[in-house]
Amino acid sequence: MRSYSLIAPAKINLYLEIIGDASGGLRQRPDGYHELAMILQSIGLADQIDVRSISTDNIRVHCNHPQVPTDKSNLAYRAAELMVRQFPEALAKYGGVEITVNKQIPVAAGLAGGSTNAAAVLVGIDLLWKLGLTQSELEELGGTLGSDVPFCVAGGTAIATGRGEQLSPLPSLDNIYIVLAKYRSLEVSTPWAYKTYRQQFGHSYIRDSDNLAARANAVHSGKIVKAILDKNTREIAQKLHNDLERVVLPAYPQVLQLREVFANQEGVLGTMMSGSGPTVFALFESQQQAEQVKLQVREAILDEDLELFVTRTITHGIQVASSV
Q: pTM, whole model, 2 decimals?
């Protein structure tokens, strides 16, 4: 039986702007998602996904993390199901798949942990079944599973529009150091965050489709994109933006506290919540500064529930670690 071991990196949002949604007006999304303009960034914190052929036509999922389901509610499982539906001849020829998820990315953290696992399964089964799919084809399949999956396939640095599935690659950012902070037991519901934002700020949404497209395109010439093109880490850190902080921070004091503690540490270039939270990250120019601030945050918040990670920006998405 053949197998592949894949590295599935997490992602953070450097920029997240909500520009519209499906609740009326001239522009309606049939899928009910919001219209977004984001900048997504792959980071070194990653899960390992092993994908192995088995003699039956089943899908089996195992995971080392007790909070991660192994049934059809797992996005990695659904990715395998999608491949089975799309390529029944390959299933008949090569058999089913056994997926083992070695979780390092925190669960329910706003870091695309589930999406990157699904992306790795798509890549792994493509290799296992010798399908020869292009990256674009894998991204398109991923888009049917979730908004972040196409980016997780591609990785690096990218502008994402639509509901997040329309990607425009940017020059990759390498070796910006990051400290991530998340309370293990704290979760923020993504649907709640967007629904609450709509309730409070929906009056500002763009309804006209032409203006919506123009606003989505405007991020391409925005200040943070210029900073990325210039590889100016300090300027990138100053231009971090996340609309969802407006509803999550007031409702979740622990997330606000993390942001404030980071902001008060020397050496922090910028800090922000990633996605819908509850993970907060800070950017640094060196690993030494990041490690030092990690220790300072640990001393400032004496709570064993708090997880802290030092990582960095990377230039790639799913990668093959080994094959047997």
A: 0.93
